[in-house]
Amino acid sequence: MNKRCPTCKKGELATTTSAPMPVTAVYSCGHAFGPGTEPPPDAAAARAKAEILIAEIRDALRRGVKHYAVDGRPLTTDLEIVEALRHDGEITFEPRR
Ligand SMILES: [Zn+2]
Questions:
Q1: Which pTM value belongs to this model?
Q2: pLDDT at site 65
Q3: How many Å lie between the centroid of ligand 1 and the Cα of residue 26?
Q4: d(Cα 7, Cα 1) in Å, to the nearest integer?
Q5: What is the C-alpha separation between 38 and 31, in angstroms, rounded?
Q6: Separation CA 97–CA 43 (nearest Å)
Q7: Which of 21, 26, 49, 56 would bridge with 15, disulfide CB 3.0–4.6 Å?
Q8: Ligand 1 mean position, distance from CA 32 (Å)
């Protein structure tokens, strides 16, 4: 299993170097990490929470749960839902009128 980039989770570990090189891991996405440049644990926890939320949204979509933006617009993909949450801070399960 390839190690994934801790920032974007998309890049794969491409190169590792060892001390005294300042960069210890380079990912295929271009992100690079060295000693002290790993994202802080708080950011990692927030990202883990967001990933759980997105997984739940995808699961709900698969089960046929409908989602709507606060303006009543139907949201049909996980990306639309995440965008609506980012923009409005909330979504609804029933179209508002
Ligand atoms: Zn990356």
A1: 0.51
A2: 93
A3: 9
A4: 18
A5: 11
A6: 38
A7: 26
A8: 8
How far apart (Å, rounded) are the C-alpha atoms in residues 53 and 86? 13
Nearest alpha-carbon partner for 90 in 64, 53, 63: 53
Task: Please check whether residues 22 and 4 belong to one and the same domain.
Answer: yes
The reply to whether 56 and 70 lie within a common domain is: yes
pLDDT, position 60 = 94
User: From the CA of 93, how far away is ligand 1's center (Å)?
Assistant: 34
* Least confident segment among 42-51, 62-71, 75-84: 42-51
Cα separation values, 90 from 10, 15, 57, 73, 76, Å = 27, 41, 13, 13, 15
Instruction: Please determine, for residue 7, whether its predicted confidence score (pLDDT) is greater than 90.
Output: no
Measured in angstroms, how far is the CA atom of residue 19 from the centroid of ligand 1?
A: 21
What per-residue string of b and e applies to 42-75 under the rule 16 or more CB within 10 Å gives b?
A: eeeeeeeeeeeeeeebeeebeeeeebbbeeeeeb
Number of domains in the chain: 2
pLDDT of the residue at 42:
79
